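One record is set out below.
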Amino acid sequence: MPVVLHGPAYSTYARSARLALEEKGVPYELREVDILKGAGQSPEHRARQPWGKVPAFEHDGFNLFETFAITRYIDEAFPGPRLQPEDARRRARMTQICGVIDSYAYPSMIGKVFWQAAIVPMQGGTPDQAVLAEGLPQAEQALTVVEGLMAEGDAALCGGAVSLADLHLAPVLDYFVMTEPGRAALARRPRLSAWWGRMGQRPSMVKTRPALG
């Protein structure tokens, strides 16, 4: 029963789905869809994802889009380590953190800070300091909130074991800390920094880390 994931290796959301597959030990094929070059708007991809976003997922004739739906399906449909807490409150916290990342962390940390501080210079442009100045406080707040939602002494975001929340945040933070303001923001949050020291070195993270430049 083949598993196919459509999306570019550089996408944080495609990477979250790949992390879930890697953590569960599920073989899969990544079919690149270069959304930065417009491939997401092709009729073929729009048939898989009506808004032309990534990732899109296929398993044995079952098609799915939206990352959190995909990662939940991966956890529930395949054997391997559980990626969702059994406790209802921890599971609700996991869902809450994923929502915070989608609504607040990603738009500021990737859409504003990382894009301006890393991608724009990489493309030969000059960062828009106004966008950076707007995005950084929003990114800082998102980090503060996520760190505050971690229970004292927990090794992962929602307990002792890695969950979908960890897999949702890790690709975003991996890009964010490539920037100087991102590294400084993380350093001011010791519990989240300790979490990143562990999470960033997991085999699944190393295997799926995209090459930039």
